[in-house]
Amino acid sequence: MDFTLTTYKTLLKTLQQQSFVFQTFQEFIEYSAPFRESKGVSEENRKTIVLRHDVDKLPQNSLCFAQIQHELGIKGSYYFRIVPESFDPEIISEIVSLGHEVGLHYETIDLSAKLLHQNSEFRIQNSKLREEDIAQKAIELFKEQLDKLRQYYPVKTICMHGSPLSKYDNKLLWKYYNYRDYGIIGEPYFDIDFSNVLYLTDTGRRWNGDRVSVRDKVKSKKSKDKSFNRTREIIHAANNGELPDHIMFTFHPQRWADKPLPWVRELVLQNVKNVVKYFLNKVRK
């Protein structure tokens, strides 16, 4: 069985045995130029991994991940949505207490478009929903959500939520604004050179889910050359020294479970979602 906590632990231990150093995304940014030069940080050319976690729902699962990493002396980055199924102050505080990074999993373009569409007064005054109007509303929501999350952690990095059913990409916000103006130093889709960093994401409950991923993907020859389906294939490649020196993993912890019922439920739901997202990709091409 794949996507179990047992498999996850095996993956982490294997990567440790291969001398990979684990960093939060904030550390990855701060150890890279120009931050390295400005802060006087010396960083050897070592093998590094960033463990990114998108807390879309079931935050308790993310806490399990954080506890496993803590036991192994590993740190990761956890990106919370500001919605009831993700945002849990108690769990956020527990994850922070274990030494992990917390960031904002923003989706304010999608949310703003929905709010403006529902606003009858706005629709009367505006014949068309423009990108600029959506972005203006979205940045207000972004600041509110960032302030809310910063009550529990000094957030320095963010990551967009894919919102696959929306026709709007949440990264659109940064066409009109600059996240650095809000004390943010990094966003993975803008601040990682994926020609030098292998990107592996469990989107679609598989590691080669480009066809069923609407937005959680990057353009990189490195990622195409290193394609995996199951976690055991990544473990095998690590044991054989076939992985590159720099990797970002993206996990969705709600997909991982040891107990049979949650495991099967997630498998069935994800297979249904994959069919929907596959056809969405076809329509939007």
Walkthrough of the structure:
With 285 residues, the protein is of the alpha/beta class. Strands 1, 2, 3, 4, 5, 6 and 7 form a 7-stranded parallel beta sheet that branches. The radius of gyration is 19 Å and the shape is globular. The protein has a single domain (5-284), classed as TIM Barrel (Alpha-Beta Barrel), CATH 3.20.20. Residues 37-41 have low confidence and may be disordered. The protein contains 13 helices and 7 strands. Helix 5 links the parallel strand 3 (77-80) and strand 4. Helix 1 (5-17) runs parallel beside helix 12 and helix 6 (108-118) packs across helix 8.
Q: How do the strands and helices of this protein lay out in sequence?
A:
Blueprint: H1 5-17, E1 21-23, H2 25-30, H3 35-39, E2 48-55, H4 59-71, E3 77-80, H5 89-97, E4 101-106, H6 108-118, H7 120-125, H8 131-149, E5 158-160, H9 173-176, H10 188-191, E6 198-201, H11 221-225, H12 231-239, E7 246-251, H13 260-284
Parallel strand pairs: 1-2, 2-3, 2-7, 3-4, 4-5, 6-7
